[in-house]
Write a structure and sequence with these properties.
By secondary structure, this protein is α+β, with helices and mostly antiparallel strands. The protein has a domain of 193 residues: Ribosomal Protein S5, domain 2 (2-Layer Sandwich). Helix content is 42%, strand content 21%. It is built from 11 helices and 13 strands. It has a 6-stranded mixed β-sheet, sandwiched between helices. Strands 10-11-9-12 form a 4-stranded antiparallel β-sheet. A 3-stranded antiparallel β-sheet has the order 2-7-8, with helices on both faces. β10 and β11 form a beta hairpin. It is globular, with a radius of gyration of 21 Å. It starts with 5 loop residues before the first helix and ends with a strand. The model has no long low-confidence stretch (mean pLDDT 94).
Length: 380
């Protein structure tokens, strides 16, 4: 079968020849379990049918040339011997450059190549475009070098790249979700031992993303500050991570922790408990309980962890009024999307109504769309 993707067509247009390999990585949405992965907690993401594609071919020169359909202009070029993080308008490329650097560091012989990036995964919307970009780059490197990594190995290399080149001290959830995704399922991930448990998702519910239009930037320091708060709280409680904490221990240490660290710790502990209960509610078909847990998660992220924003709070309020089974912010916060569980037969009406209602109230146009749980990143 002839394969035709936007990245293939763009590759021919930009570089004047055919691509040798095309890879595709989905984004991800997290149903529940936010800001706990870097404290070894439990999370429940699934890969979504919004993608980043990468078409590539080798070149004889020891450099990489990358062109992005969302950026345009001339291809970004860098010698393999001079790999380094970039700033300003070129900072988006750090997710690519960092992965190349990590594969080189791990002993893979990476030769020069040119690549095209395209897709329909919105950037900065809390759908983990960063992990998708890292993973699609990793697959291209593996294909061109003949060095195949397991999805787990690939995930860890991509996480290291984000730490080193993008400056985001992220957990492993996003990379695991986009590499291990399974159609029709969420993955409950125990970030302490990296156990992955596929959980079937109810076919009668649609998953509706509502994009606030507020672009978040996790590298601006807020993410790192939250992570540091958690580490400080764990240390003061005599623990390695907050995964080990019981709520009674956190409550007992409230005075010594101080208000901010207490609230950060309370979020992590209660969010971990919500993930376990959410898994039970999924198995038992408890719709109302799913909604209650999502509402509690959003309130905790808003009040205790302080990573929501006015736009996300308004969207959650409106979704509840319109009739969502469950709704909350998803992703790192400070903007991005809400995830909404909606009866499948009502999804189209819900998308239309929340966009109209939000624009009337806030004066801003937004986008709402359904996503489906899909398989993880792969070579096409």
């Amino acid at each position: 079968m002839f394969l035709s993707t936007p990245s293939l067509r763009s590759f021919s247009e930009v570089f004047g020849r055919e691509a040798l390999v095309v890879a595709r990585s989905p984004g991800r949405v997290n149903l529940i379990g936010e800001h706990v992965d870097y404290q070894m907690g439990r999370v429940m993401p699934f890969a979504v049918d919004r993608y980043i594609d990468c078409a590539a071919a080798p070149i004889s020169e020891p450099e990489i040339r990358i062109w992005s359909s969302s950026i345009g202009g001339a291809p970004l070029r860098m010698a393999l011997s001079e790999l380094r993080p970039l700033d300003g308008d070129d900072a988006w490329a750090n997710y690519v450059l960092g992965v190349i650097a990590e594969y080189v560091r791990s002993g893979v012989e990476v030769a020069g190549f040119e690549a095209i990036l395209s897709g329909d995964l919105p950037l900065g919307a809390g759908l983990s475009s960063s992990a998708a970009l890292e993973s699609v780059t990793a697959l291209v490197i593996e294909s061109l070098s003949g060095c195949a990594k397991s999805p787990m190995e690939r995930s860890k290399l991509c996480q290291a790249a984000e730490h080193a080149f993008a400056g985001v001290p992220c957990g492993l959830m996003d990379q695991l979700a986009v590499n291990h995704g399974r159609a029709g399922h969420a993955l409950m991930i125990d970030c302490r031992d990296l156990t992955l448990t596929p959980l079937p998702l109810p076919a009668e519910l649609s998953f509706v993303m509502v994009n606030s239009g507020v672009r978040h930037a996790l590298a601006d320091g807020e993410y790192a500050r939250r992570k540091a708060d958690c580490e400080s709280a764990a240390s003061m409680l005599g623990l390695t991570t907050l995964r080990e904490a019981e709520l009674s221990v956190v409550d007992a240490g409230r005075e010594s922790l101080g208000d901010r660290l207490y609230r950060r710790a309370r979020h992590v502990v209660t969010e971990n408990a919500r993930v376990e209960r959410f898994a039970e509610a999924l198995k038992n078909g408890e719709r109302a309980e799913l909604g209650r847990l999502m509402a509690a998660s959003h309130a905790s992220l808003r009040d205790d962890y302080e990573v929501s924003c006015t736009e996300l709070d308004v969207l959650v309020e409106l979704a509840t009024d319109i009739g969502a089974v469950g709704t909350r912010m998803t992703g790192g916060g400070f903007g991005g999307c809400t995830i909404n569980l909606v009866p499948r037969e009502q999804a189209a009406t819900f998308c239309n109504e929340i966009c109209i209602t939000y624009q009337k109230r806030q004066g801003q146009a937004i986008e709402a769309f359904t996503v489906e749980p899909v398989d993880g990143a792969a070579i096409l």
